UniProtKB/TrEMBL annotation:
SUPFAM superfamilies (UniProt xref): NAD(P)-binding Rossmann-fold domains
Name the record gives this protein: NAD(P)-dependent oxidoreductase
Residue span(s) of domain NAD-dependent epimerase/dehydratase: 4-230
Source organism (scientific name): Pedobacter panaciterrae
Top-rank taxon: Bacteria
Family that this chain belongs to: Belongs to the NAD(P)-dependent epimerase/dehydratase family.
Length: 304
């Protein structure tokens, strides 16, 4: 049985990754922030929950060796990084360093899986983004993720730590209570006229959380040395189509407007080249259209 540590296991990605590993026979330990009782966290496949900031000392206190550590903890917002760059650095970079140092000193055979972001590469245009393309971040969030990736590479090159980095594009699904889809559902439900940032022509690559968690688990089994893959569907979809699909599932007439304004640090286009991910024997199972319908059902179930 594999022993797996998941940081940030209370969060959207973390808890779904925990459930995926548990379903495949792992013993799962979670660590991070979040008030969670045993009957709640065991539903997500977590055998132990340690509520604490992710530090080297906290990892020592857990006092276990792991086959895989998945670092889902940390910052997850470009906007937050602009408002709180120091705290964003601590969440993204310092926590990553603590985990790598723990592996170096106490658990050298452990694999380290780091969910990162295409924000490390910045604005590359309306093309499928390959993992090897240039890296010029345009936000503190992207810079901090890039620094964390560089730390991972350093620990691999200098200390032979096995590292897998997975750059997730737009993950969504039941349980996500923030970001575009959540905000859009709230606006559509509450008003007949809704306004969004941008032009609507911006694109994103949407990946359902179940596909995202399965990809991470499969990737962890293949990682040898140091590797970077994209986590996406391989489809580029305009924001205005996503909003239109959401509106149709609410079965109400809605006037949708875009204000033309841009959010600082948000690239116009995100589109993943998933050739490397597909080579693992993985492929997305949930189409975006079906996934969006499922998300609206989830949202309505919470608010009806």
């Amino acid at each position: 049985m594999k022993n797996v540590l998941i940081t940030g296991a209370y969060g959207f990605l973390g808890r779904n990754v925990a459930k995926e590993f548990k379903a495949n026979g792992a013993y799962v330990v979670g660590i991070g922030h979040g008030k969670w009782y045993q009957d709640e966290y065991t539903k997500w496949g977590i055998d132990e929950w340690h509520e604490t900031t992710i530090t080297f000392e906290a990892l020592l206190n857990v006092n276990q060796e792991f086959d895989v550590i998945v670092h889902c903890g940390g910052s997850g917002s470009v906007g937050f990084s602009h408002e709180n760059p120091y705290e964003d650095f601590q969440k993204s970079v310092q926590s990553t360093l603590s985990l790598l140092e723990f592996i170096r000193l106490r658990n050298p055979q452990c694999k380290f899986i780091y969910p990162s972001s295409p924000a490390v590469q910045g604005n590359l245009g309306n093309i499928p983004i390959k993992e090897s393309m240039e890296s010029v971040p345009v936000s503190p969030y992207g810079f901090h993720k890039k620094i964390a990736e560089q730390l991972c590479l350093s620990y691999h090159n200098n200390f032979n730590i096995q590292v897998g980095i997975i750059r997730y594009f737009s993950i969504y699904g039941a349980g996500l209570k923030k970001q575009l889809l959540w905000d859009a559902c709230r606006k559509i439900q509450e008003s007949d006229v809704v306004v969004f940032f941008g032009t609507g022509k911006e694109t994103r690559d949407w990946l359902n959380i179940s596909d995202a968690a399965r990809l991470l688990r499969m990737f962890s089994e293949h990682v040898k040395g140091y590797d970077v893959i994209n986590g996406g569907s391989g489809r580029s979809i305009e924001i205005q189509k996503v909003i239109s699909d959401l509106c149709s599932h609410f079965n109400k007439p809605v006037s949708v407007k875009f204000n033309g304004a841009t959010k600082e640090g948000d690239p116009i286009y995100f589109w993943a080249d998933i050739t490397k991910a597909l080579s693992l024997g993985w492929k997305p199972e949930i189409d975006v259209e079906d996934g969006l319908e499922g998300y609206v059902k989830y949202y309505k179930g919470l608010t009806s």
